[in-house]
Amino acid sequence: MCEGKLTGAWSKGKNNRYAYYFCQTKGCPLKHLSIRKKDLEEGLDNILLEMTTADNVIELAKAIFIEAKEKDEKNVLAESEIKKGRKSECEREIERYAELASKASADSVVAQYEKKIEKLIDELKDIETDLAIEFDYAIPYRTALDKILGILKNPYQIWSGMNVFEKHKFFSFLFETNLEYERNIGYRTPKYSVLKRVCEQIEVSDSLVVEMARVERACSQGRT
Question: Longest Cα pair distance anywhere in the chain, in angstroms?
Fold first, then answer.
């Protein structure tokens, strides 16, 4: 079958209605031939059940995520310090312009100072509002981390708890293209997303490192 999207429909039997899919893509060998909904969904479930990730990759993903969190928190703290510095500058400038305005004799000059003061006060309010917001970064990061690790550990479990709209988005996250299904045989080898391919590459690389270490250790023991 091609990588075109399938169309769902219902067929009425003697006693019940049955759901099925069919392809409408021009040139597809399965065009207009029905495929049972049960077969398609069970086949996809099996693919998702097989999409497990090695523990070492999960631990690496966790470490990278935590490192990114700590870096982001440092950036937030640095930005907060910059805002505090600017707040102090605004307060000093307001005092300075207020003093200049009190000494000015021309109304036009006083008006210019007052405009500058108003602008600084607006900026000061924005800064104070930002600084007053106390945000616990641990909560969203913990939620995001749990979701990512859950996807790596057991994508089927995540999938089974989603609604139709969420599944559409999640499918694009897991697979690079639509899955190809061959009648009476099942799904062809999926084209996984970049995330899955990277995880597989890490697993292979780590296995090679471990194997090389074993070989080197064996050679060393053989020479002694």
Answer: 98
User: 6 φ, ψ to 5°?
Assistant: -90, 155
Q: What are the pLDDT digits (tens) for 27-67?
A: 777 777 788 888 888 999 999 888 877 787 788 778 877 88
d(CA 221, CA 69): 43
Could you tell me what percentage of the chain is helix, strand and coil, using 3-state DSSP and rounding each to the nearest 5? 70, 10, 20
Distance of CA 100 to the CA centre of its chain: 53
CB 117 within 8 A of CB 104: no
134, 77 contact by CB (below 8 A): no
94 contacts 125 by C-beta, under 8 angstroms: no
Distance from the Cα of residue 218 to its chain's centroid: 43
**pLDDT, tens digit, 9 for 90 and up, residues 153-168:** 888 888 888 888 888 8
7, 21 Cβ separation under 8 angstroms: yes
Q: Is 193:175 a contact under the CB 8 Å cutoff?
A: yes
